[in-house]
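Let's practice the habit of predicting before peeking. Look at the sequence and jot down your guess about where helices and strands might fall. Then scroll down.
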Amino acid sequence: MNTTTTAAVTLTADFIEKTEQEVTPHWGELGWVTYKRTYARWLPDQQRSEEWPETVKRVVEGNINLDPRLHTDNVDAQVVADLTEEAQRLFKLIYGLAATPSGRNLWISGTDYQHRNGDALNNCWFVAIRPQAYGDSHIVPSYLKPDQIAASMPFSFMFDQLMKGGGVGFSVTPANVKQMPQVDQSVDLTIVIDAASASYDASVALGAVDRSTWMHSHSLADARYYRLPDTREGWVLANANMIDAHFNGSNPDHKTQVVLDISDIRPKDAPIHGFGGTASGPMPLVEMLFDSNQILNDAVGRKLTAVDCTDLGNMIGKTVVAGNVRRSAELALGGAEDDDFITMKQDKDKLYHHRWASNNSVAVDSQFNDYQPIADSIQHNGEPGIVNLELSKNYGRLADGRQEGIDGAVEGTNPCGEISLSNGEPCNLFEVFPSVAEEQGWDLEAAFGLGARYTKRVTFSHYDWEVSRKAIQKNRRIGVSMSGIQDWILKTFKQRVVTGFEAKKDAVTGKTIMQPIYNQAAVKRVNDLYQAVVQADKDYSKTLGCQPSIKHTTVKPSGTVAKLAGVSEGMHFHYARYLIQRIRFQDSDPLLPALKACGYKVEPDVYSQNTMCVEFPVKAAHADEAAFASAGEVPMAEQFATQAFLQTYWSDNAVSCTVTFQPEEGQDISSLLTQYRNTIKSTSLLPYSGADFKQAPKEPIDEATYRQHRAQITGDVATTFAKMTGHHDQKDIELVDQSDCASGACPIR
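Done guessing? Here is the structure:
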């Protein structure tokens, strides 16, 4: 594929200037600040970060030029004209914040990094933890043939994607883990570093040894030696070398000494080109390699367990977080009857050391009915979540009935649970904010259709791993989401989508359940929008001569992206009618003086050094509506029913939902999980918390307190910032604690 960075389709300055005059971005209360610190890229030639029109131009051009018709020897002029017109419509849609692609696309689309790293446009991935071949991939250990299966491969895939900024779901269900081979031998791991390295002292303190001294007194003849290049791939291959040395199939010489040379790895705080940020130095890697090697040494003579494999994945996640580029997002999917897996976070020492790095869920089917132990665990620590793989394999939307094997290769989900995925497959997301789109005069069918085409083009990226290329070419899976759902439903239908409940008898359990009654106008409208997405994909697929997408729609958690437009996050209810939203900044952030000048309360963070905490008073959209309910008010049963509505009539993938519950509702978790076992593909639950601790991220307040705080704000941050700095920003400053999901599971970008 031609990966030239010269766009065949461009947006002119005249068009962009005209759009700026005609369209006003729908910034939320925290929108512009969140954008500036999360998605505005640094422009080195101008020594400032992007402005919103520049970001949208970059993103749209990066996407539209993925159309494969532009990568032929003779490009049809009419194709260029048509795609230019589509690019203009996309620009207006995204610039106005009536819709956005995923946060990953906002950050990466249209950059050189997109062209160098084919996986860059996808937020999250899934991999099954079982021996696999690396195949025709950009990473293949030198001691393996491409078609040779190895225990290291899924961990290498995970490590690579996490370091490229993706989240990774991984399956340690019994069917996968039992395929892992017995650990054959203990490995004596030595990590050497040259005395000239700036990381020498810190690495030696963690167990590395002086390179010259070790080499002088040892021979490499009987060791597996690998000198890491200063690349992401080098870290991945170092871990693979260590893992594979434990297994006879990937270590036929039975060498028990592994020597990893980290002398060339750049030091702490050195810049990372491409994705951005600064380096951690090799120290987190040193710690991970020793810890992971110990897990494997402890398993000699037996097969790895689900807990062992999760620990190895968590060690990787912990290392990526320490890498100072981004937070790591992992979801470990285990067996519903694997008590060791379900209770593994009860070991507090290991939880604080590394097991915090994944959200854990269990795989069930519709016949599973023993939800009480799971419900008890959820009440104690909010885990595990539930993933029904049987529903994902055999159903799109529930309204369309069972379609045996429609998505039969599904084995797990991304970390937020909105997309069921096959091995090696990524999620591919775009979301429309229907209430904003209608305000700005968009036909919703057209807006959602543009989202379908945007995501379809992403599937034509060049992917680094063979396992991913095969899954993407087979499925062409897209995930067009809607967000601000509660806002749109209240605005459009003047009531919440669940209008009541009626008593019914469960045909299997014989127990009485309260079945939801839905607003039928909402059912019809959501169904119409779903059909528009499917038709747009069908038409574009025919044009491109490729497979129609196996599934099309989803509800993502949204989080950071929803903050841009100030809408409710995904399907979730607003956290409170009125609240203080606290955002943390590095204390050197040049936005802080502008925020202070505008009247926002800025104070030192009580938990972290060199960090400032800023308070933003927020009023939920439609808080004055009679039918409004916040997450602190709406019953848990109604949240389940709302998720079921979206799974039935909108999403043929899945629906990301974190159900919040009050203490007195905990006793109903098991019965509700049982009731919706045939309807909900994945879900998680957390207790609702208000201002339970000092400087809580979200603190519910009353209307009077909101008005008091709002009256203290006297200026617009964007305007004030421009006057104070002349738009000259600082590089590599970002919000400290933003996440792209309600549960904090997904990456910042």
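How did you do? The longest helix spans residues 520-544.
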